[in-house]
């Protein structure tokens, strides 16, 4: 086995619906967050999706695997992680979706002409998904440089990323993201006048425990008021098995739909 192969794994998601090449023992490895994020894309027919900060491409590939007409663009600043995404698309197991997915090595915080030149074209996507870095700068920093890029949150991150989402979405397009509850105020502030109709779902491991994630969706240009949705529980009171509805989301059998009607 070559050194390169020894440093990566090929992992099945959606019970074999697609496969992902990921770094082994370092960097960010995809899991439930990416699958929940992907489940928030709900569309019939062709839908253009941008995955910002895509990493190895787990969320974007999950969308393409579940929605056969989805066209997905993966935007990732790390050359190495973008390379993992490219190798994932080259896998024979992903042949049915590879033609609908493109990888862009790009900084999603770019502005204006530089942003457009990087593939983040104005008013061109129906749906933007993002799982931004979630560790505050004051948190203990990791010595793993690849993980640091994926997890370290810089000041103003949500403002910069949501600004880009607002620029590249078509009017009426949907933004969906997953984050820590501690980021809620920043997310709402960043949506500002760009997005309305925010729907926020707290995600809990089980009843009686504090939320550890929030799912947030919003519509570009909407003036609808914020809605706090019923919590989503991962597990029942006993054991660690996912509840059936969560297992469906995790394995691409269902979408986590908005409670109010969107354009798509």
UniProtKB/TrEMBL annotation:
GO terms for biological process: methylation. One of its GO terms (molecular function) is N-methyltransferase activity. Residues 35-182 form the Methyltransferase small domain. CDD domains: AdoMet_MTases (cd02440). Pfam families: MTS. InterPro entries: DNA_methylase_N6_adenine_CS, SAM-dependent_MTases_sf, Small_mtfrase_dom, tRNA_Adenine-N(6)_MTase. This is Methyltransferase. PANTHER family: TRNA1(VAL) (ADENINE(37)-N6)-METHYLTRANSFERASE. SUPFAM superfamilies: S-adenosyl-L-methionine-dependent methyltransferases. Keywords: Methyltransferase, S-adenosyl-L-methionine, Transferase.
